[in-house]
Design brief:
binds magnesium ion, single chain, 6-stranded mixed β-sheet, 257 residues, globular, alpha/beta, 3-stranded antiparallel β-sheet, binds adenosine-5'-triphosphate, Rossmann fold, 22% strand
């Protein structure tokens, strides 16, 4: 569904990504983890056409209108209410305003925001805005979702509920997902494959971890699965190696030694 080959990209001559390849088959839940500033958001921006790569190719086997994109910083329109922000992509797609607003209310309810539909973004907390943005990306029922740290700034309970809701929705509708997260437990609990990025500049993907946990998953039960702790440890060491600047080749040698 998404095929990135030998991608190189930078800003004003400063390289950020180089030789980066990433394949996400249809219906797969992929997580992207890596040090802050390595270029995760840049990858997603390139996929949706907001940033022009210097080299390489990005093949997206789905209509761009069927791709939902959740920005790291919420991109709500300040002059529209929460309801109208969520309804906007549906109206653009041709739904009647009335149907779109009714649908928006359903998604705001699912995000625990009942009664807040008339508020404007500046009248909402950071976590509430994040949930409006989540509702906005889910409401058009995309076939593919690109999400950049969607659950940051939510309290533990709301985070759990929203994540569990996303998980069952994604599993039951075969949605392809690329999730950027700094939360390694979340990456393992949700995804089929975790891609670990190296530190920039010229970052790429240095390790791939397959997550063989059964589906459908229960978020709580998943964390007590005997496979969970070893996977977390492996991923933790992988990220620590990257953050500390140890190349993946050297790490492999250390493991063998
Ligand atoms: N518009 C821009 N102009 C110049 N440099 C930029 C721009 N956007 C990002 N960068 C730089 O490119 C690099 C990658 O940024 P990016 O936002 O993709 O990182 P990230 O992996 O998403 O980080 P984080 O985990 O902190 O969100 C960083 O060093 C950042 O400072
Ligand atoms: Mg980012």
């Amino acid at each position: 569904m998404l095929d990135i080959t030998d991608l190189a990209l930078g800003y004003g001559g400063t390289p950020v990504l180089d030789d980066l390849s990433l394949t996400v088959p249809a219906s797969q839940f992929a997580a992207l983890v890596g040090p802050s500033g390595c270029g995760k958001s840049s990858i997603l921006r390139a996929v949706v056409g907001l940033h022009e790569p210097d080299r390489g190719s990005i093949d997206l086997d789905v209509d761009r209108r069927d791709v939902g994109f959740l920005f790291q910083d919420d991109a709500l329109l300040p002059w529209r209410s929460a309801r109208h922000n969520v309804a906007l992509p549906l109206v653009i797609r041709g739904e009647s305003r009335r149907a779109a607003e009714a649908e928006a209310d359903v998604w705001l309810d699912r995000m625990g925001l009942s009664g807040l539909g008339d508020r404007f973004p500046q009248q909402l907390s950071g976590g509430q805005r994040k949930r409006v943005a989540l509702a906005q990306s889910f409401a058009p029922r995309p076939r593919m979702l690109l999400m950049d740290e969607p659950f940051a700034s939510l309290d533990a309970i709301v985070r759990h509920r929203v994540t569990a809701d996303l998980l069952s929705w994604v599993e039951s509708h075969d949605i392809t997902v690329v999730l950027v997260t700094h939360d390694l437990e979340e990456a393992i609990a949700l995804s089929d494959r975790v891609h670990l990025m190296s530190n920039g500049p010229r970052a790429n993907i240095v390790e791939r971890y397959d997550i063989p946990l059964d589906r459908p998953r229960d978020l709580v039960a998943t964390r007590t699965d005997p496979q969970f702790a070893p996977l977390l440890e492996e991923l933790w060491h992988g990220l620590a190696g990257v953050v500390d600047g140890v190349s993946s080749d050297r790490r492999r040698l250390e493991v063998q030694a």
